[in-house]
Amino acid sequence: MKNLIMTHTLAVSAIMSFSLNAFAAFVEVDTFESYTLGNSAIGGPAGWLGDSVTNLNAAADPTGGGNQVGRLSGDADEVLNTAGAVSEGNVGTFFFRAYLVASETNTDVTIGFTNLTGVGGSPNNSNYASLVRFNVDDGNSGANNAFEVYDGSYQSVTSPADVAPIETGEWYSFWMVSDTSANTWELYMQGGDVATQQQVAIGALDTDFAFRGGDVAVNSIMFRPNTDNNGEFMYIDDIYVDSDSGTGGNLSNPVIPEPSTFALMVLAGAGALMGARRKR
Fold it and tell me: Which CATH code for domain 24-253?
């Protein structure tokens, strides 16, 4: 029995070792699993700052499965987390998942990097770096749902074509790669009809976007619900940041192991089991 316990211990240790190494570069900001449903994340252990405690609350995943997510709402409110800071000269990658709700027409949310470190005051264009914007204009047909990136102005995404416009009722994963030396950024996504990770483009396949504030520091990640006429909201989940992801950014998925990583984890476990059996 003792040998059997040791066998399982070795296998688990090997798997954990591979798992931790595979995702060492991404740092978890929040997955919303530690909160009581309905409670606010603002001021909680993950370090969220907000203009109101109602800006970000723990909620049940609309697709079920027992997962907990963040419910984002507000009226021109800032929701910040300084865990997303990226030092000058580094390339940072901000990973998040987003879900737009069909019934929440007039939802208008901006997500990205900012130089802000606190809420309140009157931020302006110079405070923002990379920005993506979602807007649910017509929850019935989805024909007018806006999916835009900032590059001199807000411009509609043209590729992948399957998200022009973006769909409601689907979880999408996003990788926002921001270069603080060049003051430019790129965006990648996956989810819904976009089965594999693809780079986002505007116009004639332009994929390199300018920071809104020019040479602006990246001190926080930001979620900014811009309107709250009737309590509109959207869901977010699995917030991660790699503050020094190198050229090209970190395009791995911090939530789901890559197939090659999973294979290594399985092999590690199998190897530990076989090694332990040989020693018996």
Answer: 2.60.120.560
